[in-house]
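Sequence in, structure out. First:
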Amino acid sequence: MTYFKAVFRSTVQFAAPFVIILAAFGGARGQTVVDKTVATVSDGVRTEVILYSEILWQLALQPKSSLTTPSREDLNSALDSLINQQLFALEALRLPRTKPTDEEIQAEIKAILSRFPSTAVFEERLRSVGFSSVRDDDFVDLITKRVAINNFIDFRFRSFVIVSADEVQKYYNETYVPDFRRRQPGVVIPTLESKRAAIHNLLVEDKVAARIESFLDDRKRQAEIVILSEP
């Protein structure tokens, strides 16, 4: 079992940070790099660790983030994202789950690749954080877990969202029309029917975002989140 598979999602109980010495981590062959536990997230039953290497993996998927000299802002943002992912993952364990399909995994990889100039550019970033390519089993495992979380989010927060015709009408009258007039004075305003689907989708996403924010606020109050060291 490779290092990444062994530690990607370890479940442990402990109270102090630890470090792991890695040889030939990333693209610098023979270089010794210290990996460390940055944080733990516990729901009272399971405790999940977040490693510094996982923060780098998160940054590798973000086109504008530097991997050689990551900013403190980027590191903290990546850590926040991983904490949120852990909270979703812990909640998902309470529900029946189906494994992501190969089609879903490949679609997610394709979506990530679309954010970069080329596959070669992205794979260079992957190599710098320890993966060999987009076909690396460990990278596929990483994406599989991301897809599983996305599927949980869709089921938990999107499936039961309802947007009424009255809500669409109200948004069109009170928000869309005034904004359009301000941005394009004198131009004929698109009809409600021509914008109904777009407004409906917008309102759905707003409700999903609000539900997610409420969920995370609630879980962060209930969970034990321990920052063991600065990323």
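Second:
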Amino acid sequence: MNIFLLYVILLKAAATSFAGLAALPAVHDALITHYHVLTEQQLNEAIVITRSTPGAVGLFIVSVGYFVSRWPGALAGWLAMITPALTIIPILHYAGRRVEHPRVKTVLQSVVIASAALLFAAAIPLGRDALTDPLTMTIATISLALLLMTKIETFWILLGGASVTLIASAIGAINKIS
């Protein structure tokens, strides 16, 4: 795939999503469905890599770029990820002075609602691919309950889920780790 086209696709995803994984539907549609240069498995791996390392959730765009075109793709992904941040600073400076204006408040609320909807839409294919057996469904259910009802940091929940899976694999309760 042409690196400039990859940059534009990833920039579109990064610029139109305001919460990390909200870019998933755009990335999925363009790179998996339309251009066929990325697989579902690679997209899931990119997300796992990002969630397993420190940093912003939107960093998965760099991993996606790498899966598509190796190091030049990773560079295109990184540039696509930072471009909106560098362009939004002057816009926020301008809007910050007008944050109490009803139109600005309405726009900001709309962005939050749209981002939440995109996150939900992105979670559906991930769940469909990841929830393959009773163990993963149990881990997902307990993780969701802990996130909603406690103040446990997500790191500990991720570590707990990974530990349970590794222990279950070690004792033979599951045949493979997906």
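Remark: The CA atoms of residues 3 and 116 lie 30 Å apart.
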